[in-house]
Every structure is written in structure tokens, then in C-alpha cells.
Amino acid sequence: MKLVLISGWAHGSEAMAPLAGLLSSRWCTECMSLDEFRFGPGPQTEPTVLIGWSTGAIAALQVAAEQAPYVAGVVTIGGTARFCACEDYPCGVPPANLRAMAIGLRRRPEETLGRFFADCASPRALDEDVLAERVRHARGLIAPAVLSAGLSFLAEADVRHGLREVDIPLLALHGMEDRIVPVSASEYLVANSADARLVKLPGIGHAVPEQVAESATATIADYLERL
């Protein structure tokens, strides 16, 4: 069984390396950026578990909702069925926040990315030098058009209506201090999926793959063994 790990917005595939490194001793792993996964080669021929973080979780759920025959399971980390809140979905963020982020990305990209990475790390604080390096890395690794396209994807993606039709075991991991995606989003995923389990991580924010890779891996490994 193969594991495909998909990173979130403004992160390269290396963001999933802490998890992949720990899982690779028992399973074949492949890390992909959000853009690589969305526009990559498509369905494979072997049973695959999709492990998506943040925006990567939405992309993974989209593939599962389409009943791709090779998907054996889905793990969402800080995931959601829809990023923006609306009248019948209070679990997202206000659409105005995403619009402001898109404007900030065009006008003040370093400041916007810096605020995003700081929110990802919260409740832990990032050293200023570390934060500056992450902004430089993102700016050098990901083209502005790709960052903007990722925000457009977040504004439009909505997999709520396909959840009940997905006959695939789902594991949802979510930090209880997440400032990017509220934990209620994963509660919604589990409540509206046919076969799902939620593991809440106390004291942890959005940066689960970086901050608690070992404990997250243990939970994922237990899930994989049960498939």
C-alpha cells in the first residue's frame, strides 16, 4: 500500500517530510505539494492512502469524493470540507478574511505570508529569523500565480455533498488551538462521513506535521494497520 502525503497552501512537499520519514520504514511514501497533487499524473494503479494537510486535505477529499478506485483511505490533518463559512456551514472562516489575504498577497506578500506562517505555528511562537526564512523560502519556491491559484481553490472548493457517498475510512487529526482551520471543521467531517474517526490534539495548532510528527505518525500508523 502506498501513502501520498499532500502539503498545504504556501508549503512545498518538504512540509510533509517529518511524517513521511517516520512512516517510510513500513510503507512506501511520496510527498507532493498541493499543486503537484492537483495537476499531477492522476489515479494510480495500486491501493493508495491520501494524507492531506490543510488545503491538501480538501484536495484529498475531492479525489475520494470522486470515488477514485485506487483510494484505500484518507487522513486529513487540520482539514475541512469547505474553507469559507457560509449560511449553511458555520465551520469555516469568513470569506472576507480570504479576500483580504488575496489582496495582501498582491500588495504586501512578505507581510501576508509572515502572518500566515505565524498563525500556522500558533500557539507556539516562531523566532523572527525562522519566520523570515520561511517567507523567503515560500517566495523562492512557489510562484505568485500558484499562491493566488491556491487561494482561489480555497474560495471555491466544497466537498460537503460528497462526504456521505465516500465509502472510504477517514481519519481526521486536528489541533485544538488551530488558528487557520477551526476544529469544528473536522467535527463536521466526521459527523457527515460514513466511516470516520476524529483525534483532537490538545495544545496544538495548525502545524501538526512539524510540531507533533511522532505522535501524529503513531495515530496514522494505527489507522493504516486497521485498513
Description:
The chain has a six-stranded parallel sheet, sandwiched between helices. The protein is an alpha/beta fold and 227 residues long. The model has no long low-confidence stretch (mean pLDDT 95). The protein contains ten helices and six strands; from the N terminus they run βαβαβαβααααβαβαα. The chain has two domains: 2-83 and 157-226, 3-Layer(aba) Sandwich (Rossmann fold), CATH 3.40.50; 95-153, no CATH class.
What's the structural blueprint in terms of helices and strands?
Blueprint: E1 2-6, H1 17-23, E2 28-32, H2 34-38, E3 48-53, H3 55-65, E4 71-77, H4 95-107, H5 109-121, H6 128-141, H7 144-156, E5 170-175, H8 183-191, E6 196-201, H9 208-211, H10 213-226
Parallel strand pairs: 1-2, 1-3, 3-4, 4-5, 5-6
Q: Which quaternary structure do these chains form?
A: single chain
In total, the number of strands is: 6
Number of helices: 10
- CATH architecture heading of the largest domain: 3-Layer(aba) Sandwich
Structural class: alpha/beta
Taking strands numbered 1, 2, ... along the chain, how are they ordered across the largest sheet? 2-1-3-4-5-6
How many domains, in number, for the residues?
Answer: 2
The proportion of residues in beta strands is: 15-25%
CATH class of the largest domain: Alpha Beta
Can you give the mean pLDDT? 95
Helix content: 40-55%
Shape: globular
Helices and strands, in N-to-C order? EHEHEHEHHHHEHEHH
Q: N- to C-terminal separation?
A: 10 Å
CATH superfamily of the largest domain: Alpha/Beta hydrolase fold, catalytic domain
Question: Which fold name fills CATH's third level, the topology of the largest domain?
Answer: Rossmann fold
What integer value in Å does the Rg equal?
16 Å
Biggest sheet overview: 6 strands, parallel
In the predicted model, the low-confidence regions spanning at least 5 consecutive residues are none
